[in-house]
Amino acid sequence: MKSSIAVVVLAAGAGTRMKSALPKVLHPLAGWPMLRHVLDNVGRLKPSRIVGVISPGAAVVAEAFAPHRTVVQKRPLGTGDAAKAALGALKGHRGPVLVVFGDAPLVTTASMQRLVAACRKQEAAVGVLGFIARDPSPYGRLIVRRGQLERIVESKDADEAEKAIDFCNSGVMCLDGRLVATLLGAIRNDNAKREFYLTDAVAIARAAGHKAIAVEGEETEFQGINSRAELAVAERALQDRLRGAAMAAGVTMTDPATVWLSADTRFAADVSIGPNVRFGPGVTVASNVEIKAFCDIEGARIGAGAIIGPFARIRPGSDVAEDVHIGNFVELKATRMGRGAKANHLAYLGDSDIGARSNIGAGTIAVNYDGYGKWRTVVGPEVFVGSNSALVAPVRIGKGANVTAGSVITEDVPAGAVAFGRARQTTKKGRAAPLRAKLKARAAAAKRAHKKTTK
User: Fold this and answer.
1) CB-hemisphere CA count at 13 Å for 155?
2) CA 261 to CA 284: how far, in whole Å?
3) pLDDT tens digits for 68-77?
4) Following DSSP, what letter does each residue of 112-142 receive, concatenated?
5) Residue 230 φ/ψ region, left for φ over 0, alpha for ψ in the -120 to 50 degree band, beta for the rest
6) In whole angstroms, what is the distance from residue 239 CA to residue 406 CA?
7) pLDDT (0 to 100) of residue 14
8) Cα–Cα distances in Å, from 243 out to 7, 30, 41, 246, 247?
9) Residue 168: beta bridge partners?
10) Which residues contact 133 (CB under 8 A, 6 or more apart)?
11) What integer pLDDT is reported at residue 192 of this predicted model?
12) Domain 6-222's class?
């Protein structure tokens, strides 16, 4: 029987290069804080425990780790000291201990699983994920001889021969739980920075006669994030990964590079997405949906066969049922659209329930806010709402009713009724020409007056 895995997530870094009051590991990436990506990825390993190492006073980071335990690294004395802070929370654990960084959200579950599996198979005290770097200069080098990882040399400490090595340290390490306290306890700070480096665990293990190994992964996974520029690079990389997964699962994207997804965006097969579409967090899209160009969708469910856009905005709390049409410049907010309902042009439907097969005309507004509270508009099935209507909530319109164009509806409309809510039209024959002459003269007088004042 395999022993369980424990995971230590190092998240005590100051993140000063982010130039932000927000802790680095909470900066968003594909709609989630980057720490959530790390926790999601390690969570798929089904570890027996996850321990977060945070800095003093980092209550918001501790909240982001919940329900997992956090410990505090009291002073910033290096990665080895940070890992050592987790030893109390690892008490009794004898399986592999995987150490990862909270600012490395692109490391995949598959790569971490390969590292753990290799350490188990080879009975290694220490295992490290490495990669072949296009530019190795910023990274620690992995010194491998006869299949054994001998040590990790930091770039600034490497000699010319070591600098020529392009096999580099990712920062992801697996330690034997039976030896973790001994290995971390042996790390010393006899270096220029007076810090305890986790990477020294490799040389310590080898000096004690234990096995250490390196497992190769893809460089694209191992980009840490220390600045806003690196955050943008990571965003592009993650978006490419998410788009690729969506298309592999049966989604068509006309111009994939312009489609922006969240980590939790979920598509069924046979969804078609036009260019310049953004999905915020919390979106699920059923099969045979067409989402046209320049749409923005967040916190919503889109039912099978729906057609959305172009230029539509669907905000959180909205539920679009099967075969609904949401057209250009239509905005939904916390609105439920019944099966086959349509709002094809220039409408705002906030806090509304629109019944099945109802039609909402161009320019219609659900007036949901009275300055103090928000109220719902309930439209029954098979209702026709004419163009340029205002439905002043709270209001209900019954099944099969007809609201004429230009109406302001302030009272409930019974089922099957026709509702007029507009001023009566007055027509004055022959008066158009005199009116135009009057308006023309007024404009000319205003122009003359302006010339006098500017002389």
Assistant:
1) 11
2) 11
3) 999 999 999 9
4) HHHHHHHHHHHT-SEEEEEEE-SS-TTSPEE
5) alpha
6) 44
7) 84
8) 29, 11, 18, 5, 6
9) 131, 141
10) 139, 166, 167, 168, 219
11) 75
12) alpha beta
167-176 vs 126-132, strand pairing mode: antiparallel
User: How far apart are alpha carbons 196 and 249 in whole angstroms?
Assistant: 45
CA distances in angstroms from 288 to 99, 222, 271, 285, 324, listed in the order given: 43, 36, 5, 9, 12
Which residues of the chain fall below pLDDT 50?
none
Q: Catalytic residue at 93? A: no
Find where tokens 């997804």 sit. 261
- CB count in 10 Å sphere of residue 108: 15
pLDDT the model gives residue 1: 59
Q: Which of 27, 93, 210, 345 is catalytic?
A: 345
Residue 6 · residue 95 · CB < 8 Å: yes
Q: How far apart are CA 359 and CA 377, in angstroms?
A: 14
pLDDT of residue 7: 98
Q: How is residue 445 written in tokens? A: 């007088």
* Collapsed DSSP state (helix, strand, coil) of residue 71: strand
Backbone dihedral region for residue 261 (phi beyond 0: left; psi -120 to 50: alpha; all else: beta): beta
- The CATH number given to 250-419 is 2.160.10.10
Q: Where are the domains of the chain?
A: 6-222, 250-419
Give the tens place of pLDDT for each residue, 324-362: 999 999 999 999 999 999 999 999 999 999 999 999 999
User: What does the pLDDT read at residue 2?
Assistant: 74
Cα 438 from Cα 76, distance rounded (Å): 80
pLDDT for the residue 194: 87
Confidence (pTM): 0.89
Contacts 24+ apart (CB under 8 A), 242-249: 242/30
Residue type, 158: A
Pairing label, strands 6-11, 259-260: unpaired
Upstream peptide bond of 394 is cis (omega within 30 degrees of 0): yes
Nearest-angstrom CA–CA distance, 77 and 83: 11
- What tokens does 290 get? 């067409």
Beta carbons within 8 Å of 194's beta carbon, 6+ residues apart:
77
Integer CA distances (angstroms), 448 to 331, 438, 440, in order: 45, 16, 13
Query: Cα separation of 272 and 111, whole Å?
Result: 31
